[in-house]
Amino acid sequence: MPSIFTRIVQGEIPAYKVAETDDFLAFLDIRPLTKGHTLAIPKLEVDYLFDLPDEQYVGLQVFAREVARALAQAVPCKRIGTAVLGLEVPHAHIHLVPLQKEGDLNFRNPPVEMSPEEMETLAAHIRSFLGS
Hints:
Layout: H1 4-9, E1 17-20, E2 24-28, E3 38-42, H2 54-74, E4 79-83, E5 94-99, H3 116-127
Antiparallel strand pairs: 1-2, 2-3, 3-5, 4-5
């Protein structure tokens, strides 16, 4: 059975897309730790990040860096924190989280509440910084 992320890649489930290439996709987390919390994934469904083929692994890291740079321009923050957990969804992914303090990268924190309109506006704002 395809993961929820594969279903997003296939267009079966909607997402607030931030960036997309032939091999990778970035979209806003629907339960964000902070405003702008984004997930970067390979389109290839592999459960564990470190099981990705070398080219996919390196490509995902470069893709995530490009998204993180745009995210940092779109959402004022001190840093973009990253996390790789992968226990909740069996599809490799990197969390990109705008940080003001280290505690912002705590998955026990309650999610930030954002309306669908706020999420779409934010995704578009982040996209506007890609390639600049």
